[in-house]
Amino acid sequence: MVRVLFFASARESVGHAEEDFDVGGHSVGSIKTVLVERYPALAPVLARSRLAMGHHFVQHDDATVPDGAVLAVIPPVAGG
User: Fold this and answer.
1) How far apart are CA 25 and CA 48, in angstroms?
2) How far apart are CA 9 and CA 63, in angstroms?
């Protein structure tokens, strides 16, 4: 099980802040595919977003997401 946290416009696209997925052991890229299949409106946001696992940004879509991980979808922000 992997918990995915959605922030800002990603949260608005899916309609909630977090969700658990049974995708532990899959790559970041395959999890992105699952997210877009479930939430097509997330696709343009996800294309511009960074994903973080633990306290680090994920650098490659082929990175493995272990069971029990928390993956955060962090869209770009502006302002300040």
Assistant:
1) 24
2) 24
Hey, what are 46's tokens? 């996800």
Three-state SS letters, the chain: CEEEEECHHHHHHHCCCEEEECCCCEEHHHHHHHHHHHCHHHHHHHHHCEEEECCEECCCCCCEECCCCEEEEECCCCCC
pLDDT in tens, 29-78: 999 999 999 999 999 999 999 999 988 999 999 999 999 999 999 998 76
79 sits in the region (left: phi over 0; alpha: psi -120 to 50; else beta) called: left
- Dihedral (CA of 1, 43, 61, 73) sign: negative
Q: What's the pTM?
A: 0.91
